Amino acid sequence: MPLRIGLFGGTFDPPHVGHIAAAVNVRHALLLDRVLMMVASDPYQKSTTRSITPADARLAMTRAACDGVPGLEVSDAEIVRGGQSYTFDTVCDIRASSPDVEVFVIVGGDTAARVETWHRWRELAEMVDFVVIARNDDELTLPSSIKWTRVDTPIIECSSTDLRRRLREGDDTTHLLPRTVLGVIHARHLYEDDSSRQQVTAGTAK
Ligand code: ATP
Predict the structure, then answer these.
(1) Which DSSP symbol is given to 99?
(2) Which of 18, 71, 95, 178 has the most CB atoms at less than 10 Å from its CB?
(3) Is 201 in the pocket of ligand 1 (CB under 6 A)?
(4) Is the beta carbon of 41 within 6 A of some atom in ligand 1?
(5) What is the pLDDT of residues 44-97, one digit of tens each?
(6) How many angstroms separate the alpha carbon of residue 1 from the centre of ligand 1?
(7) DSSP for residue 85
(8) Is the CB of 146 under 6 A from ligand 1?
(9) Domain-wise residue ranges, the chain
(10) pTM of the model
(11) Buried b (16+ CB within 10 A) or exposed e, 163-175
């Protein structure tokens, strides 16, 4: 039997309970052996529009978020590879190192709608199963050129954008961020103001 690996990529700036709940629920729904939480080195579709927290800090927060959660594994493969983070390259690397593996690329509904803008998405769609996280009543607009597996699951309403704002303004985040993640944020003085973040460019992520 091939290993069934979920690939849940993100900027994770910061990672929140919505990410963790989604990854755990998809793992159970699709009987995945594990879900790789892939921290983007340079999330090229975001880094041209806003400043991004350095990759090592996002990696530390994601490790803290997944600490002790069975079946979730944090990967630094895109950070080690450096440059712009393309899921196509990541999947090629996974398959090169473990040929007997089935890869499930997991995305939220907002990301799913944009998959046709991804680097080499047609080839990627031939290589993996695309999984979209949705609520029972969600009407999703999904690219019809791709065959989707839809996992209906409770979704925790939160986003990293909202959390960055809350942290900057001193609002409560305790119900949305694992305590371990808050520990990293406080220790590294992240999100206190815009100077704690930087524009990530190829090769400067580490
Ligand atoms: P931002 O607000 O900065 O754009 P984000 O909260 O969407 O960030 P990302 O790291 O960009 O977080 O997202 C990684 C993946 O997680 C994407 O596929 C996104 O659709 C999905 N996702 C984000 N928030 C949630 C949530 N609350 N529940 C389920 N999936 C989510």
Answers:
(1) S
(2) 178
(3) no
(4) no
(5) 778 777 899 999 999 999 999 999 999 999 999 999 999 999 999 999 999 999
(6) 31
(7) -
(8) no
(9) 4-156
(10) 0.92
(11) bbebbeeeeebee
